[in-house]
Amino acid sequence: MVLPVKRAKYYVDFFTYPALLLLLFWQDGNKLAAHPIAWAAFAVTGFVMWTLAEYWLHRSILHGPYWMRIHEIHHKRPRDLTDFPIWQIPSYFLAIYALVWLGFGDWRLAVYAGIMVGWILFFTMHHVMHHHPHLVQAFAIRHNAHHKTTTCNYGITVDWWDRVFGTFRR
C-alpha cells in the first residue's frame, strides 16, 4: 500500500510543471506573439537539449556507480511510485534555468519552455509505460528491453540519442 504523502509527492509533478509551463507562456506572451517562429525554434532547441540531457543522465548518472543502487530499485519494481526527494528536481531546474538565463539572452524563456515540455513528456511517458503500457505499446516494449538488460534504450521521451550513440535495441 502506498502512503498518501508518497502518492501526493509522486503526482505533484503532473500538476506543478504544466502550471509552470503555462506561466512561462504567459510571461513571454508578447515575444511569442511578435516572433512565433523564432520562439518555437528556441523552444524546440530547449526540447532537443532536454532529450540529450535525459539520455546522458539516465545512461551516465542513473546507471553509474553511485545512483545505480538506487535506480536498481526502480528496475526491480517498475510499477512502484518512485520519486526523488522533494527538493531535488526543483533545484535541478533552478540550476538549468540559471544556465539558460546566461546562454540564451532574450530567448531564455522559450528555451526553458522547451526544456519544461521535455520534462513533462518524460515523467508522463515514463509513468504511462509502467502503469498503462497498452496506451504506448511501442515505447513500453522498447523501455522494457532497457529494464531487462540496462545496457540499451536509455531514452524515455525519444529514441534519437540511443540511435546516435549505438545503444538502441528493438
Give a verbal description of the structure:
This protein has helices at 4-11, 13-27, 29-34, 36-62, 68-76, 88-104, 108-131, 137-149, 160-164. It is mainly α and 170 residues long. It has one domain (4-164). Helix 4 (36-62) packs across helix 7. The longest helix is centred in the first third of the chain and has 27 residues, at 36-62. It is globular and about 50 Å long.
Order of helices and strands: HHHHHHHHH
Major beta sheet summary: none
Share of helical residues: over 70%
- Tell me the quaternary state: single chain
Strand coverage percent = under 5%
Mean pLDDT: 80
By DSSP, the count of extended strands is 0
Q: Kindly report how far apart the N and C termini lie.
A: 34 Å
C-alpha Rg (nearest Å)? 17 Å
Task: List the uncertain runs.
Answer: none
What does the overall shape look like?
globular
In total, the number of domains comes to 1
Category by helix and strand content:
mainly alpha
Question: How many H/I helices?
Answer: 9
Give a nutshell description of this structure:
It contains nine helices and no strands. With 170 residues, the chain is mostly helical. The chain has one domain.
Features:
170 residues; mainly alpha; 0% strand
What secondary-structure arrangement, pairings included, does this model have?
Elements: H1 4-11, H2 13-27, H3 29-34, H4 36-62, H5 68-76, H6 88-104, H7 108-131, H8 137-149, H9 160-164
Helix pairs in contact: 2-7, 4-7, 6-7, 7-8
